[in-house]
């Protein structure tokens, strides 16, 4: 069917300022592979003592390797922990969520949600809906939705990934295969016309594909930094996606290719851009 291009909580609390700083540390190491303590201090305009505390925590989490006088990247393509993603593109994710909520039918309905900060914003936008059943493998989304009395929440089983707090593996896949849902809301680390919808972890990708395969409609939610990007493991082919909701920072050429592949693309703009 022809589609059209439409222009339209974690266990350890971290302050938004510190989480943004730690996210930048990981980004700098991804760009330069390794950095000295002095270089990082200058890059981030903070003291070396502050940086030592940040590096120690990130090393403990397995996100980097501390070296004598600095740090180096642990993986060639690191996955930033979900608790450090909360401050990235926050306003854009909120606008993406509002548009996505408008795409969900009212009344009794079953909705599957993958983990991620953007899908969590979608869940928050649905908290006043009645008759809605949320099926998710995300601990953070399930815990938050369970506090809203109007929603019914089904949590899948599985092995919990430390970086994303998502339950993955055969138990979670079996749960998704046993439930038919109207719409799947899928977060992603990258989406492109050629690479499809991707994430960093192969097991997570297989689990999320089970979610996709049993949904009548698939909506991908992704801020502009994810558009045109492909990461390690494919969750879905682009042909399996019905809608993409993103923001106006996305690469227009990449969006054109995605739309040409048959996906309805919704582009939202923060209020200041209207």
Mind explaining what this structure looks like?
- The chain has 274 residues and is α/β, with parallel strands linked by helices.
- It is built from ten helices and 16 strands.
- It has helices at residues 16-32, 37-44, 48-60, 82-85, 90-102, 117-125, 139-145, 170-177, 202-213, 252-260; strands at 5-7, 34-36, 64-67, 70-73, 109-113, 132-136, 152-155, 159-160, 167-168, 181-187, 190-192, 196-199, 215-221, 233-236, 243-247, 264-268.
- Strand 6 (132-136), helix 7 (139-145) and strand 7 form a beta-alpha-beta unit.
> What is the number of helices?
10
| Percent of residues in β-strands | 15-25%
Helix content: 25-40%
- Shape annotation: globular
Largest sheet: 8 strands, parallel
Averaged pLDDT, please? 87
Extract low-pLDDT stretches: 8-13
Q: Care to give the gist of this entry?
A:
The protein is 36% helix and 24% strand. The protein is α/β, with parallel strands linked by helices. α5 packs across α6.
Topology:
Elements: E1 5-7, H1 16-32, E2 34-36, H2 37-44, H3 48-60, E3 64-67, E4 70-73, H4 82-85, H5 90-102, E5 109-113, H6 117-125, E6 132-136, H7 139-145, E7 152-155, E8 159-160, E9 167-168, H8 170-177, E10 181-187, E11 190-192, E12 196-199, H9 202-213, E13 215-221, E14 233-236, E15 243-247, H10 252-260, E16 264-268
Parallel strand pairs: 1-16, 5-6, 5-10, 6-7, 10-13, 13-15, 15-16
Antiparallel strand pairs: 2-4, 3-4, 8-9, 11-12, 12-14
């Amino acid at each position: 069917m022809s589609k059209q291009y439409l222009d339209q909580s974690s266990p350890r609390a971290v302050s938004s300022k510190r989480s943004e700083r730690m996210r930048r540390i990981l980004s700098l190491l991804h760009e330069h592979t390794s950095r000295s303590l002095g270089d990082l201090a200058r890059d981030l305009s903070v003291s070396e003592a502050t940086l030592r505390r940040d590096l120690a925590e990130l090393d403990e989490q397995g996100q980097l390797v501390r070296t004598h006088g600095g740090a180096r990247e642990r993986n060639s393509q690191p996955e930033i922990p979900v608790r450090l993603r909360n401050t990235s593109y926050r306003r854009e994710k909120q606008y993406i969520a509002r548009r996505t909520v408008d795409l969900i039918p009212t009344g009794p309905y079953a909705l599957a949600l993958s983990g991620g900060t953007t899908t969590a914003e979608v869940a928050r936008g649905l908290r006043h809906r009645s008759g809605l059943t949320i099926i998710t493998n995300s601990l953070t989304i399930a815990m938050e939705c369970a506090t809203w009395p109007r929603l019914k929440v089904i949590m899948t089983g599985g092995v919990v990934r430390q970086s994303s707090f998502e339950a993955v593996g055969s138990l979670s896949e079996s749960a998704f295969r046993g439930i038919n849902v109207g719409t799947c809301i899928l977060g992603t680390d990258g989406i492109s016309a050629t690479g499809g919808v991707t994430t960093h972890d192969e097991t997570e990708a297989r689990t999320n594909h089970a979610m996709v395969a049993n949904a009548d409609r698939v909506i991908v939610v992704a801020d502009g930094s994810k558009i045109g990007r492909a990461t390690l493991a494919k969750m879905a082919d682009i042909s399996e996606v019905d809608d993409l909701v993103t923001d106006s920072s996305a690469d227009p050429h990449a969006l054109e290719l995605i739309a040409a592949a048959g996906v309805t693309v919704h582009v939202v703009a923060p209020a200041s851009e209207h």
